[in-house]
Design goal:
Rossmann fold; Arc Repressor Mutant, subunit A; 2 domains; 22% strand; 4-stranded antiparallel sheet; 12 strands; 5-stranded parallel sheet
């Protein structure tokens, strides 16, 4: 993969770049947000590793600018901020994943492998079932062309169902999908999200049976 690392701390950037090159990746490094932006305008990258606390332009602003310009490159944010609100904000801004410092190089390598497997997914921009449509690039949901207001957690759950319309998900399965957004949630929280998703889809479509309860197991999507 061709990777851009935007990180102003040399004690992190140098060994990180060395490790990724050892894994066979081509790595460019930038020490501030403006330079990072200039690199992206000159080179097409498969992945951007983006620190949040950067000089000249912070990582959140750079991420937002990249997405506004139409950049579809996967972005993995690296930050010392571990509050849930920071992670949600980063993902809402357009990041694909979020890793809190200090992190293990093996975990980062696993995250990079996971994102590399998703490169092909960029070819598919939407999933539609009937009049319900989800945009995988903008993380938005619409019914009959009308945008629906979903929270980030509700979006993650509905995307799971739409990507796997025949699979039955347990509450534990869905909780695992929400792990990066909220490590403190319990299975009761999943039930609340399912209730909210059903309510919003019913309000838009008039139908109650988008998500079925599989008693004793979990939930499945009713592909119409």
């Amino acid at each position: 993969m061709r990777i851009l690392l935007v990180e102003d701390d040399d004690y992190i950037a140098k060994p990180l770049a060395k490790d990724m090159r050892y894994q066979g990746h081509v790595v460019d490094t930038a020490s501030d947000g403006i330079t990072g932006w200039e690199f992206t305008q000159a080179v097409k990258y498969d992945l951007i590793l983006l620190d949040l606390m950067l000089p000249r332009m912070d990582g959140m602003s750079l991420c937002k600018k990249l997405r506004a310009s139409g950049c579809k490159t996967h972005i993995l944010m690296l930050t010392a901020k571990d509050r849930i609100v920071d992670r949600v904000l980063g993902l809402d801004t357009g990041a694909d994943d979020y890793l809190v410092k200090p992190f293990d190089l093996e975990e980062l390598a696993a995250r990079i492998r996971a994102l590399s497997r998703r490169v092909a997914d960029l070819q598919q921009t939407t999933i539609a079932y009937g009049l319900l449509e989800i945009n995988l690039n903008t993380h938005t949901i619409a019914y009959d062309g009308q945008s629906l207001a979903f929270t980030p957690k509700e979006y993650v759950i509905l995307e799971c169902f739409l990507r796997n319309p025949t699979q039955v998900f347990t509450r534990a399965n869905l909780l695992d999908k929400l792990w990066d957004l909220d490590k403190l949630s319990g299975e009761e929280t999943v039930r609340t999200h399912i209730t909210n998703i059903r309510r919003k889809l019913k309000a838009a479509s008039g139908s109650e049976d988008w998500i079925q309860t599989v008693y004793g197991v979990g939930y499945s999507f009713n592909a119409k």
